[in-house]
Amino acid sequence: MAAIGAAKLLATPGSLHSSFVQRDYSAGSELCSPGVVRIQTRPKWRESIVCMHLNNVPAKKMQEPQVESPKDPLLLRVARGEDAERTPVWLMRQAGRYMAEFRKYSQKYPFRLRSETPEIAIELSLQPWRAFQTDGVIMFSDILTPLPALGIEFDMVPGKGPVISTPVRSFDDLRSLRSMDDPDKELPFIREILSTLRAEINGESTILGFVGTPWTLAAYAMEGSANKNLLVTKSIMQNDPAILETFLDHLSEALVVYICHQIDCGAQVVQLFDSWAHHLSPQQFRRFSLPYAEKVIRRVKERYPETPLIFHANGGTGKLHLLAEGCNADVIGLDWSTEMQEARKTFGTNRVLQGNVDPMVLFGSEEVIRREVERCITEAGRSQHILNVGHGVVQGTPEEAVRLFCQLARESGNCQTSSEPKQKQVVGV
């Protein structure tokens, strides 16, 4: 049981119980008490059983994992630039409120408790993999998760999103920040989440970690909450850019440590989310986002050259040429407003692209979903491509639509197979 640490929560009615019981697979199913979440473990892999608001309904057992293939998992191979037997698939925000099983947690526990309690975060990370057989399992977390380690606290307020009560807006604020010295001490749940996911998946899928880019984290921390115009951040950018640039440097150093920590804990691929890139003009992106993201990518690659990194810019339209010229991420993630055909022409046939179906397509008919997925895969060239949505899965999306989306990727096996990665041209900012 050492792989899982018990959550330090009181067992009040309807609360999370941190009682872990060794389960004999031959003993059949086990009854759960009403209102109890129980997560049970077994050596070498972990079986998560969720029993919430169930009245003596037997909990279902997961299938025992198959023997691990000697090959690396599909998504990892494609992210490295290898051709493969088919197009891999995962979805941004694949663990989300569109899933009924996920809502049993989100309606009961606040976000940070869910994302920072390993037992819950592991369960939420695994739900879409069990339901849809995604080729990537991304840890349930948030791009703001590393900020408290730097002295920037945040909370998730229902209906409003992240709120930072003490924004960073001056050199005095910057001087009060801490460096990322010991992630195991400052963010102890990360190792348990990623290492357990890696052990449980056992090579059947690829474990993804993720972070926000320096620009996106700086903008959140300066605004204090979501703001469609970024009034505070843009004012600082225009009137005293040295404050912003100093903050971006500080965040870059911290993110190098944080990404390396995620890889050390078990992440096989890491995505950098530039969620607020759409707030920047191409010229601003060239100055305030890309150089700092590229600094992080370069430094991580110096330590972990074989670990693929994905750079995803929300609002990348109009910036493709900058990414083609100045981003050395192994994979370029595309948002849904970008034409895949145009992106393939811009980046060439040897660059791995990810995306980029409009997530609202998943509200369409089966015919519509099939048509749009086929178009995306075809325009990407049926190779050097990871199928994904171009933005996070939206609340209310039918689960059957996500299941079909993933199924279509599994049916895409028309790629020429090769075990050798293609040569990727190194670019400079």
Automatic annotation (TrEMBL):
<protein>
    <recommendedName>
        <fullName>Uroporphyrinogen decarboxylase</fullName>
        <ecNumber>4.1.1.37</ecNumber>
    </recommendedName>
</protein>
<comment type="subunit">
    <text>Homodimer.</text>
</comment>
<dbReference type="Pfam" id="PF01208">
    <property type="entry name" value="URO-D"/>
</dbReference>
<dbReference type="GO" id="GO:0015995">
    <property type="term" value="P:chlorophyll biosynthetic process"/>
</dbReference>
<keyword id="KW-0149">Chlorophyll biosynthesis</keyword>
<dbReference type="GO" id="GO:0004853">
    <property type="term" value="F:uroporphyrinogen decarboxylase activity"/>
</dbReference>
<dbReference type="InterPro" id="IPR000257">
    <property type="entry name" value="Uroporphyrinogen_deCOase"/>
</dbReference>
<dbReference type="InterPro" id="IPR006361">
    <property type="entry name" value="Uroporphyrinogen_deCO2ase_HemE"/>
</dbReference>
<comment type="similarity">
    <text>Belongs to the uroporphyrinogen decarboxylase family.</text>
</comment>
<keyword id="KW-0627">Porphyrin biosynthesis</keyword>
<feature type="domain" description="Uroporphyrinogen decarboxylase (URO-D)">
    <location>
        <begin position="88"/>
        <end position="97"/>
    </location>
</feature>
<comment type="function">
    <text>Catalyzes the decarboxylation of four acetate groups of uroporphyrinogen-III to yield coproporphyrinogen-III.</text>
</comment>
<dbReference type="InterPro" id="IPR038071">
    <property type="entry name" value="UROD/MetE-like_sf"/>
</dbReference>
<keyword id="KW-0210">Decarboxylase</keyword>
<comment type="pathway">
    <text>Porphyrin-containing compound metabolism; protoporphyrin-IX biosynthesis; coproporphyrinogen-III from 5-aminolevulinate: step 4/4.</text>
</comment>
<feature type="domain" description="Uroporphyrinogen decarboxylase (URO-D)">
    <location>
        <begin position="208"/>
        <end position="224"/>
    </location>
</feature>
<keyword id="KW-0456">Lyase</keyword>
<dbReference type="GO" id="GO:0009507">
    <property type="term" value="C:chloroplast"/>
</dbReference>
